Amino acid sequence: MRNSAWFAVISAVVMLGGCSTALKETVGLATGARGSVTVLEESLAAKEAKPLGAYERFELEALADDMGGQVPPELFSHLPRAFEKALAAKKIPNARAGKTLLIRGKVLHYEDSSVVGKALGPLEFVVARVQFVDKGTGKVLATANCVGRTTTRVNLGVARKAEGLARAIVKWIDERFPQDKRLE
Question: Is the pTM of this model over 0.90?
Fold first, then answer.
């Protein structure tokens, strides 16, 4: 009897674990990659309430590979589209001209999930050191570490990590861009 009780407990854990994995993968498919930003330095102007209201254009400069060529070139080709998509999702306008915030930086670390990692719970990520610069004056408003990561099997790959990195960059902009200047 005692063995059957353990078997029931182990079976329940396995079944619930399988269900939670399926749920996590489904949610991951719907939400996509994640992005987080950690501000390292910020000018006084950038700390004001919604200081980015004067900007009409957000220009993403090609990021540099600070890993000696280990970052897949596809990351750099996917990033501009992912950045535009992330801006649009937050309803932040991006005109072809006007006062411009330049986003520049370099990829510090890029990691794909190993075979074991994919089986146990995939984690892929890219870390970039990014500067947010007033293009007209050259003044750096902030420096931040931006992280794009994937944590589900359905979100693995270079394009998804680019999506997460773009979301991290846009998160900094979103927190400082006024609601009344957003697209309808």
Answer: no
